[in-house]
Amino acid sequence: MIRDRAGRDIRVLIAWLAGIAAGALLIGLIMAPPVIGLADSGDFGRVLGVSGLRVLHPDQSYEELYFNYAHQYFGYGGYTLGGYVSTHVVFVAIAGWIGRLLDGDVFDVRVLGACYAAAYIWAVVLFVRHSPGMKSRTATTIMAAVLAAVLLFVFGDIGYEAYFQSFFGEPYALIAMLLMVASAFALASSNEPAGRLFALFVVAALAVATSKIQNAPLGLVFALLAWRMTGLRRDPRWRRQVWTGAAILLIGSILMIAAAPDRLKHVNLYQSIFFGVLKDTPHLERDMEELGIASKYAPLAGTNYFQKDTAIPQNDPVLHREVLQRLSHKDIVLYYLKHLSRFMQKLDRAAENAMYIRPYYLGNYDASAGKPPGAISHTFSGWSDFKVAAMPRSAAGYFLVFIAYALALAAVWRKNRSGKWRVAVETMAVVALAGAFSCVVPLIGDGEADLGKHLFMFNVCFDMMVVSVIAGAFYGAIKLAGRQVRNRRNG
Fold it and tell me: What DSSP designation does 73 have?
């Protein structure tokens, strides 16, 4: 019913067309001159040295180097060891090796962009190829085309794609999340799920969990989702593959958590305390006393770890001994559990930043493009602009959205007894859980520091939820229309 006269699944053709459209969109938006990327903001250094790359012109002014302009070209250097723990550096290093083959003098950031683009196109093709099959070829075509259009409109937005030509870890997590969910849907929709598809799911899920230390706990949930795939096939080989994959995710997540450097823990803890709990508190003395922090550190309330000219230097050994080595993030969690109203205030603060896919304070253009300092591109920014204009600005608004989504998933799960359907629904439940997790963890783990960028994964998960709602609505509408047509014919 969903095949053409040559016996080909129409979704294959639409998937390839969607992949071609995604590639053309990427080339036109970020690779064709003027090249689009994101300015550094000071984060690239922890990735470049480990990946064998370096800044090509370090003599630029601070604003030019980190905020005003993205940079198209970088230099090559030796490989250094650093405290940045992430599999993201492996991806960047591979792009660096490809870059050396193409041009041994300078690294063009478009090589990295092309690597991300290839993975993004793969995800789009997987999603569309395994879109829901309908009873007629026309209905299947419409369903696949709608899904392709929504995926390109949302995740092809310049807000996401500008990240591809930067050394931030965000695009790595985005691509991994898309591939993880796409492969999960592909597995759930297959009559005989392939081991290579499950391997892709495991690799992508592990990439998300190891993209940054804050995402590591997600690997535990991904392992549970992998285990739920045991019933997709009944043979012993499949069960061994699933159990092995779940174990890899479990162990990888635990190792990622254990690998967090002490210095990074102390930086994040400082942010959680002084730029989180104690920031804007109406009861500073009480909160400091409850946490066991001496009153002499009161001037640090509201400061971040990288701020200059604080009353007490952030690297002061006494501060480390009396505060950062004595407290832990467990104390932060306990504080917020005792003072839920304070945590709600922090969630409202997060909600004020939750709709921003990209940081608007970072320039998108290389200086050679002749654009004003800090200029950003608004080409194909319909989705990101809509979010800024229309998304909730309070935690209560997002609570309602997530509760409604959870209830809808529960209803679909109960209605469908098929194990394959339930795995697909559970995949989206994991996405929603990851979104909620990605909103809460930055507040506990890093206070209000750089909230806009730290909520990137929240945006990814929220937008995947939106795509699933739109696709689900069209699926229901097409089924209803088909039923009405059949009833008229039979009547």
Answer: E
Using alpha carbons only, give the angle 219, 221, 225 rounded to the nearest 5 degrees: 110
Q: What is the pLDDT of residue 228?
A: 96
Contact 272, 444 (CB under 8 A): yes
165: closest CA among 216, 111, 85?
A: 111
For the segment 192-219, what is each residue's pLDDT rounded down to a tens digit? 999 999 999 999 999 999 999 889 999 9
| Higher pLDDT pick, 483 / 163 | 163
Q: 53-55 and 73-76 as β-strands: parallel, antiparallel, unpaired? A: antiparallel
Backbone φ, ψ for residue 365 (5° rounding): -110, 145
Tell me what pLDDT residue 1 has: 44
DSSP at 28:
I
Token representation of residue 222: 């991904």
Query: What integer is the mean pLDDT of 317-345?
Result: 95
Please tell me the number of Cα atoms within 13 Å of 259 on its side-chain side. Answer: 21
Measured at the CA of 145, the angle between CA 467 and CA 423, to 5 degrees, comes to: 50
SS3 449: coil
Using the predicted structure, report yes or no on whether residue 6 has a pLDDT greater than 60: no
Rg (CA), the chain: 24
Burial class, 14, CB count within 10 angstroms (exposed 0-12 / middle 13-18 / buried 19+): buried
Half-sphere exposure of 436 (CA within 13 A, CB side): 15
**How far is the C-alpha of 218 from the C-alpha of 142, rounded, in Å?**
34
User: Of 208, 206, 211, whose CA–CA distance to 247 is shortest?
Assistant: 206
> What stretches of 255-377 adopt beta strand conformation (E)?
none
Nearest to 362 by CA among 58, 70, 45: 70
Say how many C-beta atoms besides its own lie within 10 A of residue 110's C-beta.
Answer: 23
CB atoms within 10 A of CB 255: 13
And the tokens for 368?
């050679």
Domain boundaries, the chain: 10-260+355-389, 262-338
In angstroms, how far is CA 329 from the centroid of its own chain? Answer: 23
Residue 257 backbone zone (phi > 0: left; psi -120 to 50: alpha; other: beta): alpha
Distance from C-alpha of 225 to C-alpha of 201, rounded to nearest angstrom: 10
Rounded distance between C-alpha atoms, residue 220 and residue 410, angstroms? 21
DSSP β-bridge partners for residue 3: 9
Q: Give the model's pLDDT for residue 467.
A: 98
9 by Cβ neighbours in 10 Å (0-12 / 13-18 / 19+) ranks as middle
- CA–CA gap between residue 190 and residue 199 (Å, rounded): 15
As a whole number of angstroms, the distance between CA 269 and CA 261 comes to 12
- How large is the greatest C-alpha to C-alpha distance in the chain, in angstroms? 84
Query: Which pLDDT band holds residue 308 (cuts at 50, 70, 90)?
Result: confident
The DSSP code for 193 is -
